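Standup notes
- DV: blocked on the single-chain target, sequence here:
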Amino acid sequence: MRTPHMTERVLLTGITGYIGEHCAAELLRAGYEVVGVVRYPSKADATRAALARVAPVDRLSFKKADLLSDAGWAEAMSGVTYVMHVASPFVLAEPRDENELIAPAVEGTKRVVAAAQRAGVRRLVLTSSTFAVIAGKPSGRYGPDAWSDTTANIGAYARSKTLAERAAWDAVGAGGMELTVINPGAVFGPSLGAHMDGQSVAMMTSMIGGKMPMIPDLSMGMVDVRDVARLHVAALTAEDAAGKRFIAAGAEPVSMSTLAGILRNAGYRKAPSRKAPTALLKVMGVFDREVKGMLPMIGQKASFDNNATISVLGWDPTPIETSVRDMAAAIAAPEAIAV
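- DV (later): unblocked, structure below
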């Protein structure tokens, strides 16, 4: 990764979140000036304090802006060379109205892209998801050219990520700003703060706390949150990254049974060992919106072609055992986080 020029400023959305804080830390360690966009300025101090534990924060500042409003974006984009758009609406349970997720995800992405274009930003790196690649698809092997089937029953979050990414590609079009997209799988690894804004964080908390009595038949392509951050930073300047999608997930899926086994071997005795019958989950999904959101993924076994991520962005995947152990340790004792 090249050393940034001293004037290179990066605007980062989602800086107060699980992935966003790691992206900020990686940018600051790499020498970039970081402008973190916050909806609520009251969160800035806690974010700065969390980052100060792992990175220098003298080149960190904050600007107020909202994905659902035009106010503040022109000022936030002033002097910015690159944009990382990490922010995205998230809920733990399937919403009653999927537009609660879809509308802000799509409109927010359009707003950030438009503001970046007006400001003359060189490149925008967007955080998408493998949910924009494999949702609604049968088991199989998928690469960066694959797109989720939004006509299928894929759940609101997968639909929001797919439509938001498509909106970004459409908005950039043939204009002068470059777009690079990172499509992470299930993201594991330690949080820098007290975050519950990721499905994997909530799932891990339930598993180690004994609140998940049985294991659903779920398998996921996985990635360490620290790897996701490093890939975002690499994508800012990699010559061959412009106009491309990069899958950030292990080539082969990892089952939740495997995750639970890693936890039990690490001493987390409350991690589940019994498998949940799929028929039972379908019945529960009628009454439980969190279970309902899981159902479209039950039984799917998707593997990934991540060769471009390795060759172009220099990804050296962190072993999943390390990610899971570090994540569990951070949840159990957040004050001891060392990244």
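- Follow-up: The longest helix spans residues 99-118.
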